[in-house]
Amino acid sequence: MDTSPEYIDMCRKAMKYLGVPKSFLTPYIDTTNNSIMTIPYLKKCIPLYTQDQLQDIIWGSLRAYCSNEMNSLTWGVWDFYNDIDDLDSMEQIWLAYTMWELYKKKWNGTDWVKV
């Protein structure tokens, strides 16, 4: 699980688009002391989106278009991955792919920007 400062920042800024996951297994980071927890409290917690949550978000948007969703999803991520070079983990890649597919936004190192 990616707990890097960059991924935390990516998740913090993606929250306004993706919302808060409803799964009790979602890891959150407490921004006051950088501890990881599974039950958020107050507004100091940021969800750290997991790969499976991001795949579910994308899969839901592709379901209407594809007869073989997982195959199409895998190829979509592969094509996307070949065009990037500044993401360091699979979580970062999946979050970036999700934001691109749903909102046509890319991570510029500090925020999600429309391209």
Written account of the structure:
Helix content is 46%, strand content 13%. The chain is α+β, with helices and mostly antiparallel strands and 115 residues long. It has a three-stranded antiparallel β-sheet. Strands 4-5 form a two-stranded antiparallel ribbon. Helix 1 (5-18) runs parallel beside helix 4, helix 2 (51-62) crosses helix 3 (69-81) and helix 2 (51-62) runs parallel beside helix 4 (90-103).
- Give the strand line-up of the largest sheet: 2-1-3
H-E order: HEEEHHHEE
* Secondary structural class: alpha+beta
Number of strands: 5
How far is the first residue's CA from the last residue's CA? 28 Å
Overall pLDDT: 77
Number of helices: 4
User: Nearest-angstrom radius of gyration?
Assistant: 14 Å
- The helix content, as a percent range, equals 40-55%
Largest sheet: 3 strands, antiparallel
Q: Regions with pLDDT < 50 over 5+ consecutive residues?
A: none
Work out the count of structural domains.
Answer: 1
The proportion of strand residues reads 5-15%
Shape: globular
Write the layout of secondary structure elements.
Layout: H1 5-18, E1 28-30, E2 35-37, E3 45-47, H2 51-62, H3 69-81, H4 90-103, E4 105-107, E5 112-114
Antiparallel strand pairs: 1-2, 1-3, 4-5
Helix pairs in contact: 1-4, 2-3, 2-4
Give a summary of the structure in a few sentences.
The chain contains four helices and five strands, in the order αβββαααββ. It has 115 residues and is an alpha+beta fold.
